[in-house]
């Protein structure tokens, strides 16, 4: 009887109040469902660490992009004696850290001093296996290098070419290695 009275009172409520009550009940169910899912599949501390690392990476990338956009377009050198823009020591390190590309021009110039690398590069269809540009803190210099192999044409040889980066090319959008001193 008490149950019937309660149901009758609910049925007598205005339609807007019934709809609002249903909305509140649905909202509570959704929140509880996500809470339960988070208990089982939430990333917790690991997810927070990944998010912080990604935020730091994005902030660093934005900082380097701002630096690159302020550099003049053209060749950037680390030495005096040319009409090209000379990098300060701080800019040299920052540009090195921002650079990821080694264009074919720099690769071909480095091949002049490493015939084995040139030969492998020619027979494998100009394929580069791996490249890197990195700052050496001990020597305070930027180094770039690449690896070529003949694996894709059946030649079991590999050649590594590396050296100090003496100049970069600034396009206004990115920076590229311009000359590798590998002698």
Describe the structure in brief.
With 183 residues, the chain is an alpha+beta fold.
Model description:
With 183 residues, the chain is an alpha+beta fold. It has a domain at 61-181. The chain has helices spanning 2-12, 15-41, 44-70, 89-98, 104-111, 115-123; strands at residues 74-77, 85-86, 130-136, 141-149, 158-170, 175-181. α3 crosses α4. The radius of gyration is 31 Å and the shape is elongated. The protein starts with a helix and ends with a strand. The relative contact order is 0.13. The mean pLDDT is 87.
What is the gyration radius calculated from CA atoms? 31 Å
Strand count, sense and closure of the main sheet? 6 strands, mixed
Average pLDDT for all residues: 87
**What structural category do the secondary elements indicate?**
alpha+beta
- Number of strand elements: 6
Instruction: Output the number of helix runs.
Output: 6
What form results from the Cα inertia axes?
elongated
Low-confidence runs of at least 5 consecutive residues = none
């Amino acid at each position: 009887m008490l149950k019937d009275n309660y149901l009758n009172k609910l049925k007598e409520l205005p339609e807007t109040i019934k709809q609002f009550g249903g909305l509140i009940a649905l909202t509570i169910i959704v929140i509880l469902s996500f809470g339960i899912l988070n208990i089982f599949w939430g990333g917790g501390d690991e997810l927070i660490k990944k998010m912080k690392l990604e935020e730091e990476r994005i902030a660093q990338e934005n900082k380097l992009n701002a630096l690159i956009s302020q550099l003049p377009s053209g060749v950037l050198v680390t030495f005096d004696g040319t009409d090209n823009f000379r990098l300060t020591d701080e800019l040299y390190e920052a540009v090195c850290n921002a650079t990821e590309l080694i264009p074919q021009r720099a690769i071909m110039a480095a091949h002049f001093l490493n015939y084995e690398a040139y030969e492998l590069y020619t027979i494998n269809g100009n394929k580069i296996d791996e490249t890197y540009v990195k700052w050496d803190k001990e020597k305070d210099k930027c180094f770039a290098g690449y690896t070529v192999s003949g694996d894709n044409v059946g030649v079991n040889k590999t050649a590594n070419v590396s050296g100090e980066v003496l100049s970069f090319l600034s396009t206004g959008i990115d920076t590229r290695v311009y000359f590798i001193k590998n002698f």
